[in-house]
Write a structure and sequence with these properties.
- By secondary structure, the protein is an all-alpha fold.
- It contains seven helices and no strands.
- Helix 2 runs antiparallel to helix 3, helix 5 packs antiparallel against helix 6 and helix 5 runs parallel beside helix 7.
- The chain is flat.
- The protein starts with a helix and ends with a helix.
């Protein structure tokens, strides 16, 4: 369903002003998919956005990721497409992604163990 929603943004069925919202909505549940879509269609996606939003869009799409590899992908994207003076959202996103990855790697197993210990009670 998410990939179908993203595909809709490439045609004329969806209003130009609605397309970024669809990508953002997909990225809430699938940040890696949303980011990969933005990078694959970078010029087109940027044409949907106002000037200032162009530097913020991809980092904000990636923010929900919990994959540490996304940090390198986002930094590479920023180096190629975002001026060094406009990378504040990139810094925030990489920090959030690192935190999300840490929670996934360290805290979720602790929660799983705690839940498993409560099953017998």
């Amino acid at each position: 369903m998410a990939s179908k929603a993203l595909a809709l943004t490439l045609g004329d069925e969806v209003a130009l002003t609605t397309r970024p919202s669809i990508v953002r909505a997909v990225a809430i549940a699938h940040p890696d998919m949303g980011f990969d879509f933005v990078t694959a269609h970078q010029q087109l996606v940027m044409s949907w956005l106002e000037g200032d939003s162009q530097n913020q869009f991809a980092p904000r799409i990636a923010t929900g990721s919990n994959d540490p590899k996304m940090i390198a992908k986002l930094n590479a994207y920023a180096a190629a497409h975002i001026p060094a003076t406009a990378r504040g959202d990139t810094v925030k996103a990489t920090s959030a992604i690192g935190f999300n990855a840490d929670v996934r790697a360290k805290r979720l197993p602790e929660v799983d163990r705690w839940l498993a210990s409560k099953r017998g009670e």
